[in-house]
Amino acid sequence: MANPPRQSDTNPAPGIRPIFRAGLWHENPGLVQLLGLCPLLAVSNTLINGLGLGIATIFVMCTTNWLVSATRALTHHDLRLPTFVLMIATFVTVVELLFKAFLFDLHLALGIFLPLIVTNCVILGRAESFASRQPVVAAITDGFAHGTGFACVLIVLGGLRELIGYGTLFRNAEFLFGPVGASLQITLGDGSSGLLLAILPPGAFIGLAMLVALRQFIQQRSKHDPTGRDR
Amino acid sequence: MQSNNRGQRRRGGIFLVALALVAGGLLAYIEDITRWRIADNEAAHRLRALRAVLPEGRYDNEPHLDMIEVLSPDLLGGKAPLPVYRARLGETPVAVVLTAIAPDGFSDEIRTLVGISADGYVIGVRVVAHSETPGLGDGIEIAKSDWILSFSDLKTDNPLAPAWVLRRDGGDFDHLSGATVTSRAVVNAVRNAVSYFNANSVELLANKPPADGLSTDSAPR
Q: B12 vs A78: CB contact, 8 Å cut-off?
């Protein structure tokens, strides 16, 4: 079996700005890599749900990448997957307990998809392909950037589906921001009627497909990349 | 990562075991410090659900703590004992809240709370868990439509009048448009819960409140 070299010894770690450009745009987990689609499609029915899961995912990605990078000298190549999954599962359980204690209604709304963050391929993917080969600061930044990229898709898709399906924005904001959040809700019409398709699973797929196409369109039109292939 | 010889492999294994121990310890600690908050949240959630089907202001105990469990797969549904919560004013029982599970929802079981007052009225019904179709069957949720209010303030004659079925089955209850199966399931579950109450009201109302707030098993007839 091939043994990967310690790349941090031979290649310098990427700088902050390229990491953010990758995580937010060129390698966006939801729109380019198409990873983590199960929670993405299920939880993006309202903006607040998407925002809540996005925050949880960012936290898990940052802590996992930190720990994977900090202990990369101790982890054996053949044991890397059980080690990484153990770390991810621990941090996800911490998040779940904190949500149950401090954001109980949001935890009920997210349901099973909060613990299912463990199975989100983005996290294991970044741990295995980046954090295990890079120093700690770069790894944490990468986790934050990719997590934020994923969260942005959750928020945009959630907001669009909520607006088209319910005619509201920031529905249930008090789940995340406490009682003061209830005043954040913007309502068009009667707040419960809209295109039903947007709230159902097919609407999630169609909405995501349109966002992927939009990102690709913007990328192609960008004067830095007329060929449409992300560098 | 090291991956060259047996010594390094053993080191990797020891690290994995050590990591598991540390992770277990961390989780035990976090669980310990959040346990009371989580229990409070769950109790408050249960109480909020119960308040909706109890007569406001007419009881002074904590119904989510005054609970017994009863087993009645035929009438209340489910296979395991289900909680029954009691509301009292002092020593006098005022109302009970039965948990009724409809096994024949369109998608899956529908779990409801049925509040019945001691003098024989259905105070109200609320659906607490279901998998019915969004936009159609989910009208059984109070947040989505008023349909569930058709069970509020109904007299529970003993025996129940035959009109306790959907209007399209010959009775008094309208169905949700586009969701007949769902509506029928809920009507049946409420009717069975009321029948159970009529048959067992003496035991349901007369049990002394559990001394330490924990549930006691009560054998149904």
A: yes
Domain for residue B47, yes or no?
no
| Cβ-defined contact of A97 to B37 (cutoff 8 Å) | no
In a domain, B207, yes or no: yes
Give me the tens of pLDDT residue by residue for chain A, a chain 231 residues long. 334 545 444 467 788 899 999 999 999 999 999 999 988 998 988 999 999 999 999 999 999 999 999 999 999 889 999 999 999 999 999 999 999 999 999 998 898 899 999 999 999 999 999 999 999 999 999 999 999 999 999 999 999 999 998 888 998 898 889 888 888 888 887 767 788 888 888 999 999 999 999 999 999 888 666 565 565
- Measured distance CA(B216)–CA(B204) in Å, rounded: 12
Closest residue of chain A to B129, computed from CA coordinates: A108
Range of the domain at B196: 52-217
Q: How far is B128 from chain A (nearest CA, A)?
A: 12
What single string gives the DSSP state of each residue in B43-89? HHHHHHHHHTTS-TTS--S-TTTSEEEE--TTTT-SSS-EEEEEEEE
Number of domains chain B is built from: 1
Chain-chain contact of A82 with B1 (C-beta, under 8 angstroms): no
In a domain, B45, yes or no: no
Q: Helices in chain B by DSSP H: which ranges? A: 6-51, 180-206
ipTM of the complex: 0.82
**A3·B4 Cβ contact <8 A:** yes
Is the whole model's pTM more than 0.90, yes or no?
Answer: no
